Each structure stands twice: as structure tokens, then as C-alpha cells.
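Supplementary Methods. Inverse-folding protocol.

Structures were first reduced to a C-alpha cell string of length 257. This string, shown here, constituted the complete conditioning input.
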């Protein structure tokens, strides 16, 4: 009921609204993109200290080394998957690529963004991995007195042909054993491998058999290696002709004995 007030006017009670509050709380912030955690899974950021982390979506890496890099830099899951897929195509340069990525991503404010750009470079064939000094290359260079330039080019070969490293170095050693100028030969062969002019170094096995069987002197051995290098695609046929020739003009060392 209205109550009397001085002057005869009736006082009214203010009406109360039970609808929406005067100040609605702000909506929760959207979750941050997933990042790869220490166990190689994506982790969402919680909206506050008491909330649970967003559901984890595992990233199944094809290569454990790629997973370690992504975990180390807390790479977003989408980018981590891209890197894993791209590195699966780059087995020859994987170690050099990862070494370079560790250098580039260190102390970067947004490693996921930079890594995304570097993956684009990989896909375009523009990314260059890190060339490091290889101990086996250093030993080879020491044994044959190779120049620094030749040693550096061989390190590049190893960095870009990691899966063929063993074959490349064994065959290079066989070739340099008979080379008059090892540094020059090493440089020329490294350049051909790096520029795709040679798919692989020629195998000197058959040539070495001929050298031993017919007791070739140092000059003849060098000449034979030069022939194999020039005729690597049909070196077996060439060796066969040589053996037939030597059988005709000179007895094998075994027969002479």
C-alpha cells in the first residue's frame, strides 16, 4: 500500500527486476592453439588456474628427432605435423636440417610461426641445412692431405647425402688412393655429387681386381681409375675388354707364378 508523506503525495516502492544482471561477466577467452608438449602431444591452455587443460590430440611423429624439436620449442600441433610430413621426404638432409632449425628457433618469440615459414622453404627447395665438420671426412682429409676447400665440399656432400654417407666415403677413399692430385679430384667429384651430375661415385672394385691380377704399376693404376671415372656407366664392360686384352698380351700374375 502507498504510504502517506508530507504534502499528501503517495510514496511508491521502487520495482525490482529479476531478469538479466546489470553487469554480465565477460565471456571466457577462446582456447589457445594446441602446442606439442614434452610427451609429443598437443596441450590446450586452461582458461584459468582451476580449469582443466583442453583435450589432448596426440601427434604421432614418424621421426623421434622431429618430435624432440617440436617438444623443445612447444610447436603448435598443426605446424608440428607439417614438419613431420616434410622431414619424411628429406631423409638425406634430416640431420643438417634439424641442426639448422635448432639454431634458427632458439630465442625466437614465435617459433611456430618461423618454423611454418621454414617448412614452406623446404617445400620450395630453398631451405639449406647446417653443414658441420664430420669426423670421418676430417680423417679422410688428413689421410690424403686434402685442402680446406676440398674438405669443406666433402662435408657438404655428407650433410646433403646422409643416407649415402657410408658408400660415398668408402668409394671416395678408393678413388683418392690412386689420385695424383687428391684435393683436385675430391673437389671435382664433390661438385658433381652436389649438383646432381653424379647419382653416386663409381665402384672401384672391378678396377682394383684388374690392378692386382695384372700387377699394374702406379701410373697404369691412375690411368685405369681415370677411365672408370669417365666411363662410370659402362665401367664393367670396359674392365671386361681390358681383361681380355691383358690375357692376350701379358700373362696374369698367377700364371707367371
Amino acid at each position: 500500500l502507498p504510504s502517506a508523506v508530507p504534502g499528501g503525495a503517495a510514496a511508491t516502492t521502487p520495482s525490482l527486476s529479476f531478469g538479466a544482471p546489470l553487469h554480465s561477466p565477460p565471456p571466457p577467452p577462446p582456447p589457445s592453439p594446441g602446442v606439442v608438449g614434452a610427451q609429443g602431444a598437443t596441450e590446450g591452455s586452461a582458461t584459468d588456474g582451476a580449469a582443466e587443460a583442453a583435450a589432448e590430440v596426440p601427434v604421432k611423429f614418424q621421426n623421434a628427432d622431429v618430435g624432440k624439436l617440436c617438444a623443445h620449442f612447444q610447436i603448435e600441433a598443426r605446424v608440428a605435423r607439417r614438419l613431420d610430413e616434410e622431414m619424411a621426404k628429406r631423409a638425406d638432409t634430416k640431420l643438417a636440417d634439424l641442426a639448422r632449425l635448432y639454431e634458427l628457433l632458439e630465442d625466437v618469440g614465435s617459433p611456430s610461426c618461423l618454423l611454418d615459414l621454414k617448412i614452406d622453404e623446404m617445400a620450395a627447395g630453398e631451405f639449406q641445412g647446417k653443414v658441420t665438420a664430420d669426423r670421418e671426412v676430417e680423417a679422410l682429409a688428413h689421410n690424403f692431405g686434402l685442402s680446406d676447400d676440398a674438405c669443406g665440399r666433402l662435408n657438404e656432400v655428407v650433410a646433403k647425402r646422409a643416407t649415402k654417407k657410408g658408400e660415398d666415403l668408402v668409394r671416395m677413399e678408393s678413388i683418392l688412393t690412386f689420385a695424383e692430385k687428391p684435393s683436385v679430384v675430391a673437389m671435382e667429384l664433390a661438385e658433381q655429387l652436389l649438383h646432381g651430375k653424379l647419382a653416386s661415385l663409381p665402384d672401384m672394385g672391378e678396377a682394383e681386381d684388374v690392378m692386382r691380377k695384372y700387377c699394374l704399376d702406379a701410373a697404369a693404376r691412375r690411368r685405369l681409375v681415370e677411365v672408370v671415372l669417365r666411363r662410370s656407366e659402362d665401367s664393367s664392360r670396359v674392365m671386361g675388354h681390358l681383361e681380355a686384352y691383358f690375357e692376350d698380351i701379358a700373362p696374369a700374375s698367377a700364371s707367371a707364378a
